[in-house]
Amino acid sequence: MNTLKKAFEILDFIVKNPGDVSVSEIAEKFNMSVSNAYKYMIVLEEKGFVLRKKDKRYVPGYKLIEYGSFVLRRFNIRDIAHDHLVDIMKRTGETVHLILKDGFEGVYIDKVEGEQSIPMVSRLGMKVDLYSTASGKSILAFVPEKELKEYLKIVELKPKTPNTITNPRVLKRELEKIRKRGYAVDNEENEIGIMCVGVPIFDHNGYPVAGVSISGVARKFTEEKIEEYSDVLKEKAEEISRKLGY
Q1: Is the C or the N end of the chain the one with fewer CB within 10 Å?
Q2: Cα(176)–Cα(145) distance, rounded to whole angstroms?
Q3: pLDDT tens digit at each of 246 positions of the chain
Q4: Domain 2-60 in this protein, CATH class
């Protein structure tokens, strides 16, 4: 218990420090040896709570942004986004999903059925893989590089359909394309017969906390439709992101 308490005290010190911090400064602050201080920093860095710079000094890590964003937004992002989802459905006639990033997964937190409802596996509260969905890939495309590397190291890219991307190198190339064009396409990668277009939603720190997507029958998703849907999604996602402080 004392070890855990000390780890939180060290993390608190780093977060509140106006500049970066060295291991020797931590050792001096907490009256411990440099070797013991380094052991704490190894664990905090591995978990993403701190980031070690090239000069071997430490700053707060991306995990704090992720946790903070999740806590701040999980209870109100649906309320902020819902009317926009309804508008997307009215303009396209297709089903619209909102997923919230939850660690290395996503969670469906809202769904607006299209004019012609089609059977889909999605349901509110259901966990979803990021690598096989349009919303999920759009989120992955904009997370920090260090987080993406950790994701690809930890998450097994299991095939959901014959179209699922299961090669990390191929997925990285796909994410680069998504970053350039601003939207992702799920080409029957999560569910056969269903195609989706998705874009990220950013919080006040510029972190992709959620994703919104349009889903429908694959045969209807021509190149023209994909472009049309992506424009609508980007417009509405920008509005939602602004309301989140982006």
Answers
A1: N
A2: 11
A3: 688 999 999 999 998 888 899 999 999 999 999 999 999 999 999 999 999 988 889 999 888 877 776 665 555 889 899 999 999 999 999 999 999 999 999 999 999 998 876 777 788 888 999 999 999 999 999 999 999 999 999 999 999 999 999 999 999 999 999 999 999 999 999 999 999 999 999 998 899 999 999 999 999 999 999 999 999 999 999 999 999 888
A4: mainly alpha
Check if the beta carbon of residue 126 is closer than 8 Å to that of residue 107. Answer: yes
Q: What 3-state class would DSSP assign to 174?
A: helix
Distances (CA, A) of 175 to 1, 47, 183: 41, 23, 10
Residue ranges, CATH 3.30.450.40, the chain:
68-243
- Residue position matching structure tokens 């992101």: 241
How far apart CA 74 and CA 70 sit, in angstroms, is 6
Tell me how far apart the alpha carbons of residues 123 and 132 are, in angstroms, rounded to a whole number: 16
* Cβ(198)–Cβ(181) below 8 Å: no
> What letter represents residue 157's amino acid?
L
Number of neighbouring beta carbons within 10 Å of residue 88: 26
68-243: CATH topology is Beta-Lactamase (3.30.450)
Could you give the CA distance from residue 134 to residue 136 in angstroms, rounded to a whole number? Answer: 5
Q: How far apart are CA 159 and CA 183, in angstroms?
A: 22
CATH 1.10.10.10 spans which residues of the chain?
2-60
- Measured CA angle at 140 (ends 136, 144), to 5 deg: 155
